[in-house]
Specification:
With 504 residues, the chain is α/β, with parallel strands linked by helices. Helix content is 33%, strand content 19%. Strand 11 and strand 12 form a beta hairpin.
Length: 504
């Protein structure tokens, strides 16, 4: 650990113990006292160069799984930079991808001030900002989804959940706006994101390819670039770690309150039961996930093969997809049978003359399905009357004319565009049905091929199936149609459209 005499860490720790109070949970009202792992990190983060008297690092990043006090540390750091860093007229900005996220750290900082009589003598908390009359400083929040303000002169930046920043605009504005400050400080915190997406992925990759040095301590990586002033502490399970090993869980979750393993064991059991181990890896082991990780484990689809047929006495949901070029199209039927969902797929071949799938052939099959199966157990949300036949989910962007024809025929057409809000929940439901063995297919090799061609992306709304790769010609329309069919099969039970699928 950096010696006390060469670091501002002891001063920060003393400030927290004297002035800052926990705001939530069993420690609410108690002084904020650093644990050993936090002390080491902060001693190095606030190291100064004895030759200049200035800090060595102007950007410090910390990657930690959930429930390891990231937000508490960030909130306290913001107060310290506002109140005790020795800066004249400090400007401390809390940056986040969205306003509600920015409000988490900012709100916690405000609560810390209001809970501490000593801080109330030094700082003035308001609804959205904190002022320090003694030095003319201010602390407030900014977000990527708000109007980006120019002319900022930050002395310190606190950036929350960097993985959620889909573009670098706010990060760049904050980190490049510090030129007028002698020793600016940016502190970002985050759990892992998706490999290759966003500024966090770039910074994480720089740990392995940058000009600095990388120290590996099992589940802790420390990247030091003293020339460019960058320090990153990253706690996360190694790529090849056994994700079911409790010793590995504890190693990448350094907080003392997680070391008895009970909370982690509970979370693992819940997520495993839901087939949601991707969430476990990302949020509790802090592993970056690549697009190849975000769909199905090897063998998951094959394990779902069964001889359970569709039952013509039960309602169905129907999903439809057509590639933008019109060369590939599919219709998939999904039917709930007890605690399982049975699917069947039909992929349409393009016409020889045009190379494009005939939408008329698709309409014929959809009319047949309407006639073959009973009314679904659902009602029109406006009229409350039973819907006239199966629900057909499709994207009007590729099948607008077909949607109009089906609607004119009296078929129940449901718009399902390719957005995270629409396709995210049923993508997660489909994923979990497959990974828990509750989606039953007949081994159709074409459907299997389309499932194998599918990739997914992680969004703030969960996982969403997408095309295999940008510009790829590998078809996966049957898989996208299957997700829509599952959505339609659950039209009578929207609460089951969630991360955890339950039947009854």
């Amino acid at each position: 650990m950096v010696p006390d005499a060469l670091s501002g860490g002891p001063h920060f720790a003393a400030y927290c113990e004297r002035y800052v109070r926990h705001t939530k949970g069993r420690w609410a009202g108690r002084p904020l006292v650093f644990e050993d792992w936090q002390r080491e990190m902060w001693w190095e983060s606030l190291e100064f160069d004895p030759a200049t008297g200035l800090r060595v690092y102007n950007e410090v990043g910390v990657g930690l799984p959930r429930k390891n006090s990231k937000s508490t540390m960030a909130s306290a750091a913001g107060l310290y930079m506002l109140d005790a860093d020795g800066e004249n007229e400090p400007e401390v900005y809390v940056g986040a991808a969205a306003k509600n996220q920015a409000g988490i750290v900012m709100g916690q900082s405000i609560s810390m001030v209001r809970r501490s009589p000593l801080l109330l003598d030094r700082l003035k908390p308001y609804r959205y900002r904190i002022e320090c009359p003694r030095n003319g400083g201010v602390m407030r929040s900014l977000s990527s989804d708000g109007a980006l303000q120019h002319g900022l002169n930050p002395s310190a930046n606190i950036i929350d959940e960097l993985h959620a920043h889909k573009n670098p605009e706010l990060y760049t504005a904050l980190t490049t706006g510090t030129g007028a400050r002698e020793q600016p400080f940016t502190f970002w915190i985050s759990t892992a994101g998706v490999a290759g997406e966003g500024i966090l992925a770039d910074l994480y990759e720089s740990m392995f390819s940058g000009t600095g040095t990388l120290e590996e301590r099992g589940s802790l990586l420390i990247y030091r670039d003293r020339v460019n002033g960058t320090l990153i502490y990253w706690w996360g399970a190694p790529r090849d770690a056994d994700i079911e090993d409790p010793a590995g869980w504890k190693a990448c979750n350094p907080a003392s309150w997680l070391q008895d393993g009970r909370y982690l064991a509970q979370q693992f059991a819940k997520l495993k039961a839901r087939g949601a181990l991707l969430e476990w890896r990302r949020y509790h082991l802090n592993q970056f996930l690549g697009t190849e990780d975000t769909w199905l484990r090897p063998g998951a689809w094959t394990d779902c093969k069964g001889d359970l047929p569709l039952n013509v006495a039960l309602p169905i949901g129907v999903g439809i997809d057509r590639s933008p070029d019109g060369e590939h199209a599919a219709i998939v039927v999904a039917q709930r049978q007890g605690d399982r969902v049975v699917v069947r797929s039909q992929v349409f071949a393009p016409e020889t003359a045009t190379g494009i799938v005939s939408t008329e052939a698709m309409r014929v099959r959809l009319r047949e399905l309407r006639a073959e199966y009973p009314l679904p157990q659902t009602a029109d949300p406006k009229t409350k009357l039973p819907l006239d036949g199966p629900a057909f989910g499709l994207d009007r962007a590729s099948l607008g004319e077909t949607a109009d024809v089906l609607s004119d025929d009296g078929l129940n057409v449901v718009e399902m565009g390719n957005t995270a809000a629409v396709m995210g929940p049923p993508s997660m439901t489909t994923f979990e049905l497959i990974t828990t063995g509750r989606l039953i297919h007949d081994g159709d090799p074409i459907l299997a091929e389309h499932v194998a061609n599918t990739r997914a992306k992680l969004t703030e709304r969960g996982m969403q199936v997408t095309r295999s790769k940008h510009g790829s010609t590998q078809p996966n329309v049957a898989c996208v149609a299957m997700v829509r069919a599952v959505a339609m099969a659950f039209q009578d039970a929207p609460k089951e459209f969630s991360a955890g699928v339950s039947f009854g």
